[in-house]
Amino acid sequence: MSDKLLNIKNLSIEYRTEDGVVKAVNGINLDLKEGETLGLVGETGAGKTTTALGMMRLIPNPPGKIKGGSIEFEGRDLLSLSEDDMRGIRGNKISMIFQDPMTSLNPVLSVGEQISEVILIHQNINTEAAIDKAEEMLELVGIPGGRYNDYPHQFSGGMKQRVVIAIALACNPKLLIADEPTTALDVTIQAQVLDLMNNLKEKFKTAMLMITHDLGVVAQVCDKVAIMYGGEIIEYGKIEDIFESTKHPYTKGLFGSIPNLVSDAKRLSPIKGTMPDPTNLPSGCPFHPRCDMAKNICSDRIPKHTNIDGHRIKCLIFEEETKKQWI
Amino acid sequence: MSNIILEVRNLKKHFKTPKGMLHAVDGVNFSIEKGKTLGIVGESGCGKSTTGRVILRLLEATDGEIFFEGQNIREFNKNQMRKLREDMQIIFQDPFASLNPRMTVSEIIGEPLIIHKLVSNKKELSEKIKELMDLVGLSQRLLNTYPHELDGGRRQRIGIARALSLNPKFIVCDEPVSALDVSIQAQVLNLMQDLQQKLELTFMFITHDLSVVKHFSDDVAVMYLGQLVEKAPSNELFKNPRHPYTKALLSAIPVADLKHKMDRIELHGEITSPINPAEGCRFAKRCAYVRPECSHGDPTLNEISDGHFVACHLVDNLVKNK
Fold first, then answer.
1. In this complex, is the C-beta atom of B216 within 8 Å of any C-beta atom belonging to chain A?
2. Which residues fall within 8 angstroms of residue B181, CB to CB, at 6 or more apart?
3. Does the predicted interface ipTM exceed a cut of 0.85?
């Protein structure tokens, strides 16, 4: 147990809005070891970003509220920490890269100041040493240290995302949460940034939670994968489990939806329908209205996790009691 | 030859900026056959959307000719152009920004029909709207809803229905699925494929997503800084890319398959500025195979095998030496 850097148990998060209670995250379990990369995959509204914000305790309250569960990090439950203690962890031991580098940097501070700011807050060193460290960080992500005094608008999108990565890694965090870090970038730039993140991750042995909707990116950088749907993790396992022995109908549907460069399928096989309304999730299995395999039982019975050698699937097709219905 | 619906010759669009002339589109030549799809790919800022807009004369070209069904449409006057718009339509990228938030679904789809006087009375209009909604898979109960009530996939279907309402022959699709989730993206792509067959449409499909373009297009043209660097039938381009930029671009795509080994050709630096570009090959600065001759004279598109065109000094030399 002690080798687990992060252990999320039964985490539930909801937003209370005028339209009703939005159950964004419903009892998810995740764990990460040091140096491991977990991919969190899902479509818009699946609850990926809410999970990440929950881990940082950055859910806006109101309307958001962490309903239950625990987030154990280095043996301490983050949910029971005081706000001061939490501030000492954010940006220091756990840091986050946001999706859009255009909006996550402060336009009126130079990039150097934004990097040294983090260092000054968390490390007991003087300003000069912090500036040196910031220049070092810039060089590390492939930007000349001499651009310390340049402002974000003087950089291109890929460069800005490098600055964001430099800020996130400035204090050598144990855990890096990357929320769609390359979605806003062009493919050649995406390749550069992914390479950079892979190298830095190995160098510093940082564990990483990679949030993305792109299964191609997952195949390149992740060791483990969790597929989210309707606020639940419906399939979880090693990358080989997910890519080579795909089990859950939703995950299969995701693979069928992406045009593949390697194969020559003339037609895609999309998942029918659209994401469920999170204020009014379907009964039973949240995926059943869109599932081609669904039977009557799927609308009344909430599936439990079936564990096949660490490959966890939340689907009645694989449960001991119900699987005979599909044979 | 008569099968060619659209041809552009030496198309240019320059924008005046405080820093100098921005060469957004700089001497592009291509043609599209009736009923086929030409995919245009490239990174942001390469001029692919501008090309689409110039062809529809939503932007006025700086130079060059655009032939639609044999007629040079750059010489058309306002009335001729309006008539022509029945045949040429566009589907925009962002279904959240391209629909008027104060109009209902039926008003949005019906507006082109009214403007072009294709219906004579209200009954005919509402029948035509319902027909179009059926065609793109929108349920009729959504007739009086507003765009903000609908999800991205449905909104993009409205955009498609609106483009189809005038019964066009040619549609420019500017990143039609980029803003959508993968499962919805697949639905919309399948819909567009069905419609193309049913209505014999010709598409110009602009995207940055190479996997989508491979799946969807008959021919693919790769753009870099306002110029075409390579054009070939889709399978040929993906199997046998010749231009160094195309090779690097293809190798950068993350493939959702663990067995697919990546031999990535890393491109250093980023796309350079299209303002007052220097003479010579525009890709030279980032190219791993750059030679002194690359900075002299623009490389031209030369056919190296059947239907496969490449604009690269190096490939020219290779072909000549053979």
1. yes
2. A43, A44, A213, A275, B152, B153
3. no
